[in-house]
Amino acid sequence: MPSLCAAELWRRSERWDLMGRDLFRLKDRHDAEYCLGPTHEEAITELLASQGHLSHKQLPLLLYQVTRKFRDEPRPRFGLLRGREFYMKDMYTFDTSEEAAHLTYQTVCQAYTRLFARLGLNCVQVQADTGNIGGKLSHEFQLPAEVGEDRLLVCGDCAFSANVETMEPGQTDCPQCHKGTLTESKGIEVGHTFYLGTKYSHIFNATFSNPQSKPVVAEMGCFGLGVTRILAAAIEVLSTEDAIHWPGLLAPYQVCILPPKRGSKVGHLEGLAEELCRSLGSAIPGLRGEVVLDDRTQLTIGKRLKDAGCLGYPYVIVVGQSAAEDLPRFEVRCQQSGETMFLSREGLMDL
Ligand SMILES: [Zn+2]
């Protein structure tokens, strides 16, 4: 979907006015109006409608992209946590009936839950407001954190949780189990799901032909993951004062290798470090492209170890003094356990 979106589409859905100052607006040389897309319900529904009738056999249809989005935030802050330009995974779904759309909705929510679990992030799915996207049903995926800007109410007795925005002011009794009390915490929104019904498909005439070959307006959902915000939020909740801790799957590199300082007593091991870097990356399928060599060998190992800690590599391997001994050993530091091990080459490959 294009970043540059025609105002005409947004006027048809009445969101040109509804979005207010959140929308980045601009004009071309002929004075035609555009916005920088903060989301793409209009564009994708129009695209689908322009293709003519879909068959009911082609549904459900789930279309997604990962692109830059733009939002004129009143208070951009905390770097990638709340920026005016960010990456989002957005998906739009088309179904034959309300029932089918609900099933798609549940399926995607379950996929989001699994995704956050695999990242090792303790995410909660909360009932949410549909805001300016609209629709009938909505959930947010929230990462509990002190710097979070959303306020959540979580029940102590059942699985109920909600964004404060969706609740009566001052409500402390759980509306689901009626016995638990709701406690408030702060959260960072990292995902958002909406069951839209026919709000957009009706306006843009996105239809499919049913088994009797009659055109029927499609039921829609939309689903977003804040890709760049997940990076920042994960670091925010997992890190300590002096070191970044990445979820293993998100760490830019799994392993950092430190060759000795140039000109030191073991300076001749620089080649060994380079060779180790190449062979780890090629011998172990999961490490392809995941091993980096800190070849700033004008710096001491101590200085580079400190930097490696700050950058949060899950594993750091030092090729130093102990690698020059008769039984060469590599010093391996594991960030997650805080352990330091001295391993032979075989031991290292096993690890
Ligand atoms: Zn409850």
TrEMBL record:
Annotated InterPro entries: aa-tRNA-synt_IIb, aa-tRNA-synth_II, aa-tRNA-synth_II/BPL/LPL, Anticodon-bd, Anticodon-bd_dom_sf, Pro-tRNA-ligase_IIa, Pro-tRNA_synthetase, ProRS_core_prok
PROSITE patterns in alphabetical order: AA_TRNA_LIGASE_II (PS50862)
Predominant localisation class: mitochondrion
A GO BP annotation: prolyl-tRNA aminoacylation
Domain of life: Eukaryota
Single GO term (MF): ATP binding
Localization per record: Mitochondrion matrix
Domain Aminoacyl-transfer RNA synthetases class-II family profile positions: 1-252
Alphabetic keyword roster: Aminoacyl-tRNA synthetase, ATP-binding, Ligase, Mitochondrion, Nucleotide-binding, Protein biosynthesis, Transit peptide
Enzyme kind, highest EC tier: ligase
SUPFAM superfamilies reported for this sequence: Class II aaRS ABD-related, Class II aaRS and biotin synthetases
Oxidoreductase as UniProt keyword: no
Catalyses which reaction(s): tRNA(Pro) + L-proline + ATP = L-prolyl-tRNA(Pro) + AMP + diphosphate
A GO CC term attached to the entry: mitochondrial matrix
EC number: 6.1.1.15
Family per similarity comment: Belongs to the class-II aminoacyl-tRNA synthetase family.
Function: Mitochondrial aminoacyl-tRNA synthetase that catalyzes the specific attachment of the proline amino acid (aa) to the homologous transfer RNA (tRNA), further participating in protein synthesis. The reaction occurs in a two steps: proline is first activated by ATP to form Pro-AMP and then transferred to the acceptor end of tRNA(Pro).
Name this polypeptide is given: Probable proline--tRNA ligase, mitochondrial
Lineage: Eukaryota, Metazoa, Chordata, Craniata, Vertebrata
